[in-house]
Amino acid sequence: MPKHESQLGDNLNKSRLSNEQLLGLWVEEQLSESQQHEFEQRCLQDEGFAKQVETYNIFAVQSEHYHSNEVPNWNRESTFDMPQKAKWWQWQGLPTLSFATSMLAIVMVLTGLQVRMEDGAMTISFSDKQSTQEIDRLVDERLAEFQQVQQLALTEYTQAMSKQQMDTSTQLTQYLLGASRKERREDFAELIKYVNEQRGDDQLFYARQLNKLQQDIYAKPDQIGTINE
Amino acid sequence: MFEKTDEQLIAKALQGNKQAWLNLLKRYEKPIYHYGMRMTGKNEDALDLMQEVFISVFRNLASYRNEGSFKSWLFRIAHFRCIEFYRRKKPTQGLDDTPEIESDEISAADSIHTSQENKQLVSAMQQLPMSQKAVVELKFFGQFTFDEIAEQTGISANTAKSRLYGALEKLKTLMEVDYA
């Protein structure tokens, strides 16, 4: 770089660097050659700046000689603030899980979700309408139930009818038997009566004949021998 | 016997190894305690601050990503805890405000923990505003560069230089008084 350009650059740097920046560069030992020159110049020309540098040096020396006493005894273990393992009910994800399941429940209710396990197959439906299969199954179920009830009623009715018929037959038989016995008894009574009447008539006839005979005998005794002869 | 690195101790501490954490703590408690001593000027405050710093460091240990030295990370946390501590202790004072005169004296109780050589230095620092004190502390005692100071305190490097310059201006007067 030509000499006049270098001087120009330095002049620009001079105009740019404030006391604070120059001191900052010096503190961190980052001064370039020209900045070093400027620093020295400023120390000579600016008493305030020189005092700042001096103060820095004094303070730096004091800080180097700072006597680090031992730390007083203190409760070191109190800083070991190991968080205890949270209980399962204190699990951070629990509110989220709860919220998610609530949302799922709401969605299931709103969409009418139905999950069915049938014959080893799982059916998920999002409609609250019952499927044809389900209706058929319900109808079959009801019909079977109805049929069973009807069958039972019919059996009971049949049994009742059968019993009633049997009772009626028994009653009829008994009636018939009773009636025929009575008729026969009446018939025999009539017959006996008739026979008795006949016998009475006969006895009466024989009695008359005997009377007549007696009268004849008594009335015409001489004819008896003729007759006997 | 080989001394374990900071990273090894951190890894063990994160696994719940108390001894590893205590070893790491003992390695850095002295610089942090003296940092607190210089920043607060009181032994009790320095101990409280140190405890807060290490509790905070332990809680954030998992977020330490080995980017930069552990010491830098530790002092960054210490700086923020110190600012919080200062705001809690002096809620009406801004970070750029010059502290009240009462803090310039070191109490008799604190003198026990402060040697004669340190007394003047600590006393002088107590008269600087918190913003300047932080830069002086990190520059002279932490031996950090302006860029590192800027990163740790969340300001620009030029602001850090300005604050150091301003602090030296005040210290110059204080030193003159002390030497007179």
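The longest helix of chain A spans residues 132-219.
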